[in-house]
Structures are given as C-alpha cells and as structure tokens.
Write a sequence for this structure.
C-alpha cells in the first residue's frame, strides 16, 4: 500500500529551469511545462553554494550554452516514436 505522501505529483513549470544530470556538472537549462522539457540548451554547472537560510545545496552559476542546438522532449504516441534530440545528433 502506498502512502499518500509518496503519490504527490509536483507541477514544475518555468522559463529558466535546469535539469542537472547525476554527475553534477552537465545540465539542460530552458523552458519546462508541467515537468516536460519544451526547449532547452546544454549548459555546465560552474559553482554550487549552500543557501544560508535553508542549508540546501544550490547552484550559484551556470556556463553559457555549450552548443547552439536546442533540445526538447516529445513523448511517443501511437503514430510516432517521439523525439528530443536534433536529427544531426541522433
């Protein structure tokens, strides 16, 4: 049986949101709507800091985009396999 707390779904949307990979350095920065990446560019995390009020580790600065390509998430459907990476990178 699942706890209600485990079933919470957060709606994350905004124009300057980053998805940071587990390596802690690689990230996508851009527009996310309801947790889905709509348009983002690859960036690197340059510096972390500890937020003095909460004690939470937070990103202090990002690099400029590392390439000109824009990435997005497109879920698969009954008529397509979905997408995400520009054709030149597949």
């Amino acid at each position: 049986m699942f706890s209600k707390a485990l079933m919470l779904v957060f709606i994350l949307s905004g124009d300057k949101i980053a998805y940071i990979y587990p390596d802690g350095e690689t990230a996508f920065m851009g527009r996310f709507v309801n947790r889905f990446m709509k348009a983002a560019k690859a960036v690197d995390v340059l510096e972390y800091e500890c937020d003095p009020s909460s004690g939470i580790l937070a990103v202090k600065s990002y690099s400029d985009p590392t390439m000109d390509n824009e990435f997005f998430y497109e879920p698969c459907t009954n008529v397509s396999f979905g997408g995400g990476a520009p054709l030149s990178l597949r």
Q: What stands out?
A: Strands lie at 14-20, 26-33, 36-50, 57-62. Residues 10-77 form a domain with the Histone H3 K4-specific methyltransferase SET7/9 N-terminal domain fold (CATH 2.20.110.10).
